[in-house]
Amino acid sequence: MSYLYTTFDGVALPLYDHSQSHDMMPSEPTLLDSVGGAYDWVGTGRRKGRKQTLSLTGVYIGELTYLVDDVGDYLVDDVGDFLISGDSETMARSQIAELMAKKGTRGQLFRKRLDDAVLEWKTARLLSVSWPRKWEDHAVKAELTCQFESRMEYWHAATATTTSGNATASVALPVMVENTGEQVEDATITVTRTSGTITVVSLVCAELGIALEWAGSLGASEVLTIDCDAQTVKKNITDSFSGFTLTPVYHTAAGWLPIPKGSYLFSATVVGGNATVAISHYTQFP
User: Fold this and answer.
1) What CATH architecture is 161-285?
2) pTM above 0.70, yes or no
3) Is residue 198 over pLDDT 60?
């Protein structure tokens, strides 16, 4: 299966005559020296990747560009000459400038799956843009090499999958979450108060060893958001981490809300009022 990097933070990447690396994120070594040999300190567990550099080389071509109206007809001046939005040199320079302005910034790097045109993304940072100038390019052609860095191991689907339900005070709400891709480490839990004042929120999945709890006060127009990737807990935009706990003994999972491939039954309970409880995740691909 082939892929193609297409855009970074909304900017089209150079795709003419392109060459791109699409390696998986590497895992670091796990063997440590021991007396008389070596041992694997991770054991039978999976060693996750931590960071990765992604690179691509491609060409921008500047082309004479004409102005058109909303139905695609060319616009002309009062003597019938076509109006242009830019000549070849200007259009080449504008493409290069737009990409170079992103150097050092973090955004979504998109790739396209070529067999079905499905888009996937990682959060990445553009580290460098190399542009060797050549006389024969005549200011209308530019070959650029881009280096990106990402800590996301897997590529994410373009849109999130959200499973939600309406929880009644002190009544356990079953939430069945289905993950059809690689293990998810960055799910988000959202609790939107609908009535009363919520004082406790709990989320449990015995099969996965997950038992999360938050205690506080969630009133009118307030939303509790638990970001399991950033490991933040916020009430609207205010930090509310002090009320959050991984329930001792019952929470045995490595991380806050790891969801392996498969279907898993969660139980959500709110105390003191009613709320909509949602678990959102992105289907992920190697």
Assistant:
1) Sandwich (2.60)
2) yes
3) yes
